[in-house]
Amino acid sequence: MGKKMRRVAYGIVSVAVLGAVGYTAWVQYGLHKSYPQTVQISSGSALQEQIKRGEYVSRLSDCTACHTAEGGKPFAGGYRLNTPFGAILSSNITSDPETGIGGWTQEQFDRAVRHGIGSHGYLYAAMPYNAYAKLTDQDLADLWAYIKTIPPVKNKVVENQLPFPFNQRWTLAGWNLLFFKDRVFEPKATASEQFNRGAYLVDGPGHCASCHTAKNLLGGDTSAYLQGGALQGWYAPDLTANPHSGLGKWSEEDIVSYLRSGTNKITASSGPMTEAIENSTQYMTDDDLKAIAQYLKALPASEAPAPTPLSSDNTAMMTGKKVYESQCSACHVSNGSGVRNMIPSLSGNPQVNSPDPSSLVNVVLNGTDGPLTHANPTAAGMPAFSQKLSDSNIADVMTYIRNSWGNAAAPVSARQIEKARLDLQAKPWLGESMHGKK
């Protein structure tokens, strides 16, 4: 059976399963369930304080990043999310009554944010309502007070661009029944206030599991909580105490520094995490950053063992070393130590040791801007090497980096780089025209 036929068959089976479950869920819960508001918007001077709190909740939830298209007006939608099932565009959440949510009530807003039901029916989980469900009633009301102040922007967005059968929203009732826990955050009675605040921020507004937890075939979270996940050509690394591929060797201050500035003595952010830091975590209070750090450091380590590193006399390792010395050592230093709080160390870096090299491949091929934050206004970027290095050169140098200076990870093949170059629309190697096909 060809790849296209398998995709069609998989889609039909998925819709059949979700449809059956979805019908049950629709009968049981329906689309018109009422969600009465326990906390209302304030008035007078109290309203201004509530709007300020709501703006902070918006920062915690990183609403700006997903609801603002590149070059577009803030919160006007149109940001493209490429899922394994197709493209979804974020909605316009400005106060425009025709193309935004200016005509919504607080209850309608709550239904969408915490319960996954919008004006067109069930929402796709690209909108992390499964995390926002944990928002407290007060935070939800404060957020609504702030959202109502966003100036209207007329921008009609066709959000659902998924192919059939994934564009059938009614099947999401079944997805919700299988994977959605519709309940507010419940603090752990035996834990400290700081630990519970960290858990709330990570699992609720921060929606860290959306990227850092692997997904199953239907897009639901697996049981590998915060142990890493792939998305849109990037790999969100393990956040558990695993000392090899996770945060086991990071201190709480390392985590705070990273979330505040985008850098620390070990690494610097890239890709979607840079967006999250620039739009969200850099604005968090010190207390909230410390709460997140305490919670993450308390997570049990994932069980993935460190693999055996490749021998230095391996052919790819020997070639990769030569490429590293000529192309990488000037910035990352000969021993991979980098420059503290500016250029990432490649030695002992959890992202380097991740089982999935997608983020490293992405950065090497296309380059990346450094995180630009209040605490790090002079960030160093990474240039693109797609035109400068062949697929085999990139594969070899990455294999070398992932198996040197105490690192250990699976080798990278030229075929992986070739595929990534195509998927990421990276520029071709300039030497290809002189040397023929790689």
TrEMBL record:
The keyword Chaperone does not apply. It comes from the Bacteria. Its main location: membrane. It is found in: Cell membrane. Residues 49-151, 193-300, 315-405 form the Cytochrome c domain. Keywords: Cell membrane, Electron transport, Heme, Iron, Membrane, Metal-binding, Repeat, Signal, Transport. Gene3D superfamilies: Cytochrome c-like domain. PROSITE patterns: CYTC. SUPFAM superfamilies: Cytochrome c. This is C-type cytochrome. It comes from Serratia rhizosphaerae. The lineage of its organism: Bacteria, Pseudomonadati, Pseudomonadota, Gammaproteobacteria, Enterobacterales.
